[in-house]
């Protein structure tokens, strides 16, 4: 694999684009920076990195009071013009975002041509939970309320949801047939899905100016990251002989209904496997390996689009007639990376529904 690299420095000249005054004198500086790293080889969908950095404002003015004193005239603060500016004013760490491996495993499970729409095998295992639920309906203790909530969450509601999904059964089978048709084409089956978006914010106080004047202000910083995945599947056997109106529809129906007993079905039958899946991708990994439709994952790439905005407030000292205008920094990164499908551990923040389930578990154990 060969790497191409290009950097564009957009340097402002004249006017406010030149640092003037008694501190350093005139000097060109960068207001906008762009970088592209493109790794290319045969084919497409290779690693790619695009970065943009743009600053605005933060112009400092202060009259020189005497010959030995310092002054600023339309002087953009040093923090925005130094070589490390794009590192100082960068992205926040979005710790909640899915890792590359977690996103790849989830994407493989969601795009697998063998994925079920109504998992009949798992529902049969969960019928026992409904029987136990009916036996507990008259109970009033806190422990029994916990049992009721858990049985509803993992016994009744999933099956009711699947029963409602059956109403759309014919359309889903038709869509799955189209996927199988694409799978047996020369390009194979290609799908791009959204994994999620995450936002984090913070107040950061960097030093904007340290030479001849110390300026440090609290800045509002917001970072948003959107993660997508692109999966490419190819058949493991020759599907060209498959007739559309017979074998292909039979295979699509089997996949849609999950008419098999495999590692994924067994995993769903294990007590508290759902709790493990909150903190790992074991369930997604097993779903990605389901092979009702004979297909294998050829490649999966993770695409991250990260944008960060820095809001820098105005700063002034009236007694010294010092004024720095407000400013902003916009940082944008687009990255595409090749990832692997593996069971991984992660610690996500729990939703209100998940907290309710854990509360029911605590009530049962009390």
Key descriptive features of the protein:
32% strand, alpha+beta
Description:
- With 366 residues, this protein is α+β, with helices and mostly antiparallel strands.
- It has one domain.
- The chain is 33% helix and 32% strand.
- The protein contains ten helices and 14 strands.
- Strands 1-3-4-14-11-10-7 form a seven-stranded antiparallel sheet. It has a five-stranded antiparallel sheet with strand order 2-6-5-13-12, with no helix packed on it.
- Strand 12 and strand 13 (322-324) form a beta hairpin.
- Helix 2 (100-111) crosses helix 9, helix 3 packs parallel to helix 7 and helix 5 packs across helix 6 (244-257).
- The chain is elongated, with a radius of gyration of 29 Å.
- The termini are far apart.
Briefly, what is this?
By secondary structure, the chain is an alpha+beta fold. 33% of the residues lie in helices and 32% in strands.
Mean residue pLDDT: 76
**How many domains make up the coordinates?**
1
The tally of strands reads: 14
Kindly, what is the distance between the CA atoms of the first and last residues, rounded to a whole number of angstroms?
Answer: 59 Å
SSE class: alpha+beta
**What is the 3D shape?**
elongated
Helix percent reads 25-40%
Helices and strands, in order, run as EEEEEEHHHHHEEEEHHHHEEEEH
Rg to the nearest angstrom?
29 Å
Strand order of the largest sheet: 1-3-4-14-11-10-7
**Which regions have little confidence, pLDDT < 50, spanning 5+ residues?**
10-26, 354-358
- The fraction of residues assigned to DSSP E strands is 25-35%
Per DSSP, the total helix count is 10
Q: How does the major sheet shape up?
A: 7 strands, antiparallel
């Amino acid at each position: 694999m060969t790497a191409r690299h290009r950097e564009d420095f957009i340097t402002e000249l004249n006017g406010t684009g030149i640092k003037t005054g008694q501190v350093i004198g005139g000097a060109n500086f960068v207001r906008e920076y762009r970088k592209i790293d493109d790794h290319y080889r045969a084919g497409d969908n290779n690693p790619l990195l695009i970065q943009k950095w743009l600053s605005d404002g933060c112009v400092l003015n202060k009259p020189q009071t005497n010959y030995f004193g310092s002054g600023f005239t339309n002087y953009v603060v040093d923090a925005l013009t130094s070589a490390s500016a794009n590192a100082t004013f960068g992205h926040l760490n979005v710790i909640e975002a899915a890792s590359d491996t977690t996103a790849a495993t989830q994407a493989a499970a969601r795009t697998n041509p063998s994925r079920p729409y109504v998992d009949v095998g798992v529902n049969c295992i969960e019928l026992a939970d409904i029987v136990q639920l009916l036996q507990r309906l008259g109970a009033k203790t806190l422990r029994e309320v916990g049992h009721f909530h858990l049985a509803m969450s993992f016994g009744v509601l999933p099956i009711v949801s699947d029963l409602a999904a059956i109403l759309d059964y014919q359309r889903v089978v038709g869509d799955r047939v189209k996927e199988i048709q694409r799978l047996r084409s020369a390009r194979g089956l290609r799908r791009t899905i959204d994994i999620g978006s995450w936002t984090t914010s913070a107040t950061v106080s960097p030093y904007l100016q340290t030479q001849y004047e110390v300026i440090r202000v609290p800045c509002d910083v917001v970072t948003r990251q959107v993660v997508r995945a692109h999966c490419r599947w190819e058949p493991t056997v020759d599907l060209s002989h498959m007739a559309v109106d017979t074998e292909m529809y039979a295979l699509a129906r089997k996949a849609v209904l999950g008419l098999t007993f495999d590692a994924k079905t067994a995993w769903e039958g294990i007590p508290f496997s759902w709790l493990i899946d909150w903190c790992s991708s074991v369930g997604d990994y097993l779903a990605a390996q389901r092979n009702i439709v004979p297909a294998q994952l050829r490649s999966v790439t993770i695409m991250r689009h990260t944008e960060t905005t820095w809001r820098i407030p105005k700063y002034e000292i009236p007694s010294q007639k010092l004024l720095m205008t407000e400013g902003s920094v916009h940082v944008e990164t687009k990255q595409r990376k090749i990832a692997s499908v593996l069971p991984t551990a992660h610690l996500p923040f729990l939703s209100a529904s998940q907290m309710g389930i854990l509360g029911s578990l605590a009530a049962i154990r009390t």
